[in-house]
Design goal:
Elements: E1 10-14, H1 19-30, E2 35-39, H2 42-53, E3 60-64, H3 70-82, E4 86-91, H4 106-134, E5 137-142, H5 155-175, E6 180-185, H6 194-197, H7 213-225, E7 230-231, H8 238-250
Parallel strand pairs: 1-2, 1-4, 2-3, 4-5, 5-6, 6-7
Helix pairs in contact: 1-7, 3-4, 4-5
This protein binds NADP nicotinamide-adenine-dinucleotide phosphate (NAP).
NADP nicotinamide-adenine-dinucleotide phosphate binds near residues 40, 92, 93, 95 and 115.
Length: about 270
Amino acid sequence: MNLSVQTRPVALVTGASSGIGACYADRLARRGHDLILLARDEARLRLQAERIAAHSDVAIELLRADLSERGDLDRLIARIGDDATIGLVVNNAGIATTGPLLGADPARIDAMLALNVVAATHVAIAAATAFAARGGGILINIASVFALLPERFNGAYSGGKAHLLNLSQALDQEASPHGVQVQAVLPGATRTEIWQRAGVDVATLPAEMLMDVEALVDAALAGLDQGERVTIPSLPDAAQWDRYVQARLALAPNLSRDTPAARYRVTASAEPQP
Ligand SMILES: NC(=O)c1ccc[n+]([C@@H]2O[C@H](COP(=O)([O-])OP(=O)(O)OC[C@H]3O[C@@H](n4cnc5c(N)ncnc54)[C@H](OP(=O)(O)O)[C@@H]3O)[C@@H](O)[C@H]2O)c1
């Protein structure tokens, strides 16, 4: 009889000091994963590690890093590539900017794109590349439902999340033949510090639109267990998403052709005179 326990791979969680990332760390520890927890605030990471140690006997490494800094990001990318014990990455660290784009502060937009787009992109590519080379692994990208709703939130935030969704779908197509599961999670409004950090009082959001972080993460992990590539925890009917994807793909044969559509054809009388 084989009594050996199958060990779970080390899980790396970015943005693990609060909110969604902290909850993933808790849940993954309960599933038996050793953890690498990353954020800028080391004291909060330590607190999070102590909470986890109270219920789970897993090894926890803390990584203090600011992923909007190129040096810290490059060190993380190298670690993901070099450390074959890492088999699960939750690509979660992110910030939000609210308010209109017209007149938006360029420095705030830059800071958000550096983390939500540049860092998230390189972490995702590094993880998918390493996992594909090792023949397996799980990459969870925390996007947002605003990826689908550019009219409803700051367009640079929603654009960044649409980028991450797009990237997830492309990486999944490339990496799944190598045993890699890439899941994009699209949370709706979730009760975390992100709102306060962006200057929004979470109490002003309609309660029926606001999910607790534990419910969000448990649902996202259930979606992962079901093999989903895109998980929208709030969406009651998964077939609605499938129809959306089918409608998008139905455009494909018509998106690149050798002639413009009839409505754009220039008639002889409309041609510019020399
Ligand atoms: N809450 C929502 O309603 C909601 C909805 C959709 C999607 N999301 C996405 O969910 C993800 C997590 O957000 P959250 O709601 O859990 O917010 P949160 O509670 O504010 O957590 C954000 C995490 O990211 C870390 N972080 C921030 N800047 C960082 C940097 N430069 N380098 C490294 N880590 C950094 C923070 O830790 P430190 O400050 O210690 O670095 C913290 O651990 C984000 O990508 C967000 O866009 C959230």
